[in-house]
Write a structure and sequence with these properties.
Keywords: Signal. This is Outer membrane protein beta-barrel domain-containing protein. The structure is a single chain. The chain has three helices and 18 strands. It has an 18-stranded antiparallel β-barrel. The protein is globular. By secondary structure, it is mainly beta. The protein has one domain: Beta Barrel (Porin).
Length: 397
């Protein structure tokens, strides 16, 4: 199994952003290799045209931000690797009502251990206290007395890999996720836990070709009114990862999801993940993909969930080793499924982002960034338009 090229493994993780249920090993960044501790300090400012994501009555503000981060990587033995990180994000929103200074925290830890040459395990946990969310929920900014969308989030992942031979392996995985909102209105509606377990069989047919089959079970349990909102899903799908060349690879997962709602009709849905990545030069690549899935809605009282088509394109282009241009486009047309006597509605969520990054003296970098968010919905109260642009710098020491 370990003969599979690192490029093919990386390309199999193309869909991580689109479907967080697929855990992908991320190698240590080059700047952290060979170091016990690595510290980062980022600072900058940006202009936000809609800090609460409101459909109307938007509040604009300049946001000043500082983010110190510390990362530890420890090889405890030849079989055991440990890592941990902590980030403090301090934001000052000049025009924000009430609290103008917000402090967010992100803490993560990971341990990987090789029990035998054939058996490997990994356990990781991520805990966040988010006061200034990167992405805002549609239909919230103008609907509640305090549109603050601050939340606490914890995710625990476990993975066990058994290599039966050089070409055949079995993977077991489990995940628990808990999300709680600070706002009382959002907390009553959206606080929940999600549980996932799965088993995957993998076969390496050739050095550049891998087949897989996987089963997953997922349970969603809300803290309040679970009889109305809880649901269970069973997934069964097959996959293939193919490296056409050392620079081009494809990944695909196709199957079925059986969705059982506690209150509402059950559904049989297609399960689709498609992706491609091409490294066309050093430090330059283009990747694209498509997924289809059922997702939770920000209005669980009116809608059971939403069927989402997710298209995404990411491009990174190195003008030279110092200047890098990156951009992304993420488009999610969806159908929100109404509860009894509530009509379904269509909604489209578009995100576009770009950055120009200059790296100098290896440890310093500066970036010009711009992000555009646009939600158009049949329910005008869920519409959202937001632009953010700014400048930030980072120092590694």
């Amino acid at each position: 199994m370990k003969r599979l090229s690192s490029f093919l493994i990386a390309c199999a993780g193309l869909l991580l952003a689109a479907n967080s249920a697929r855990a992908v090993y991320a190698p240590i960044p080059e700047v952290e290799q060979g170091r016990l501790l690595t510290a980062y300090l980022s600072a900058g400012y940006y202009y936000d045209t809609n800090i609460f994501g409101s459909a109307k009555g938007e509040i604009e503000s300049i946001v000043f931000q500082a983010q110190p981060t510390i990362v530890a990587n420890i090889s405890a033995s030849q079989q055991t690797f440990l890592s941990a990180s902590y980030q403090l994000s301090m934001d000052y929103l000049e025009n924000r009502p009430d609290d103008k200074f917000l402090a967010s925290h992100s803490l993560s830890a990971r341990v990987a251990h090789a029990f035998t040459p054939r058996l490997e395990g990994e356990l990781s946990d991520s805990f966040q206290i988010v006061k200034n969310p990167e992405s805002l929920l549609p239909g919230i900014g103008g609907e509640v007395a305090n549109p603050d969308q601050s939340y606490k989030y914890n995710q625990l992942d476990g993975k066990l890999v058994y290599n039966m031979s050089k070409r055949v392996g079995l993977k077991g995985k489990a995940r628990t996720m808990h999300m709680t909102y600070d706002n009382d209105y959002l907390s009553e509606d959206l606080d929940r836990a999600e549980y996932l377990v799965g088993v995957e069989a993998v076969r390496l047919s050739r050095e550049n070709l891998q087949f897989s089959a996987e089963y997953r079970y997922k349970a969603i349990r809300y803290d309040e009114h679970g009889a109305l909102k809880n649901k269970d899903s069973h997934f069964l799908f097959a996959g293939v990862d193919y490296a056409l060349t050392k620079r081009t690879a494809y990944t695909a997962r196709l199957g079925i999801e059986a969705l059982f709602r506690r209150n509402g009709g059950d559904s049989a849905l297609p399960y689709v993940e498609l992706g491609v990545k091409h490294d066309y030069s050093d430090l330059s690549f283009i990747s694209a993909g498509y997924t289809f899935s059922a997702q939770e809605s920000s209005n669980v009282i009116l809608y059971t969930d939403m069927y989402t088509h997710h298209f995404f394109v990411n491009v990174q282009h190195a003008l030279n080793r110092q200047f890098i241009v990156s951009c992304m486009t993420d488009w999610q047309p969806s159908q929100l499924n109404g509860r009894s006597n509530i009509p379904d509605i269509d909604e489209s969520n578009l995100k576009i982002g770009g950055a120009l990054t200059y790296t100098f003296k290896e440890k310093w970098s500066a970036s010009l960034t711009c992000d555009y968010d646009y939600v158009h919905s049949d329910d005008s109260g869920r519409n959202l338009e937001r632009v953010r642009f700014g400048l930030r710098a980072r120092w590694v020491f």
